[in-house]
């Protein structure tokens, strides 16, 4: 396990706000359990070039390591609440990107 941070980026369109709220309520404790932090979410992101993400919410979170991000995603508690996200949204993507390695 390295100490290189990773970023998880998602783009989704909410079509059932009440179901999605159930997901949100369970999301933050599990995110925190794995050392994650929500950096931003934007319902109207601006694209400078290229194809814009599907209309909807763009979410950016960070984790201290790739292992922490994978542990969060595969956590049975997260998988259980993610059923509410799947039921209440249309997901365009959920991607992990590695951060820059620490400089010596």
Q: What's the topology here?
A:
Blueprint: E1 6-14, H1 17-33, E2 37-42, E3 57-63, H2 66-74, H3 76-88, E4 89-98
Antiparallel strand pairs: 1-3, 1-4, 2-3
Key attributes of the depicted protein:
104 residues; flat; Alpha-Beta Plaits; 38% helix; alpha+beta
- Share of residues in strands: 25-35%
Report mean pLDDT, rounded to a whole number. Answer: 92
* Major sheet characteristics: 4 strands, antiparallel
Q: Which fold name is given in CATH as the topology?
A: Alpha-Beta Plaits
The succession of helices and strands, N to C, reads EHEEHHE
Query: What general form does the structure show?
Result: flat
User: What's the total count of β strands?
Assistant: 4
Count of runs of 4 or more consecutive helical residues: 3
Rg to the nearest angstrom?
Answer: 14 Å
Helix content: 25-40%
CATH level 1 name:
Alpha Beta
Q: Would you identify the regions where 5 or more consecutive residues have pLDDT less than 50? A: none
């Amino acid at each position: 396990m390295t100490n290189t941070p990773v970023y998880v980026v998602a783009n989704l369109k909410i079509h059932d706000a009440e179901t999605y709220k159930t997901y949100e309520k369970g999301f933050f404790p599990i995110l925190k359990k794995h050392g994650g932090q929500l950096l931003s979410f934007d319902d109207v992101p601006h694209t400078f070039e290229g194809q814009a993400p599907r209309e909807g919410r763009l979410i950016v979170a960070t984790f201290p390591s790739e292992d922490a991000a994978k542990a969060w995603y595969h956590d049975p508690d997260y998988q259980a609440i993610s059923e509410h996200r799947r039921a209440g949204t249309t997901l365009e993507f959920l991607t992990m990107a590695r951060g820059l390695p620490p400089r010596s």
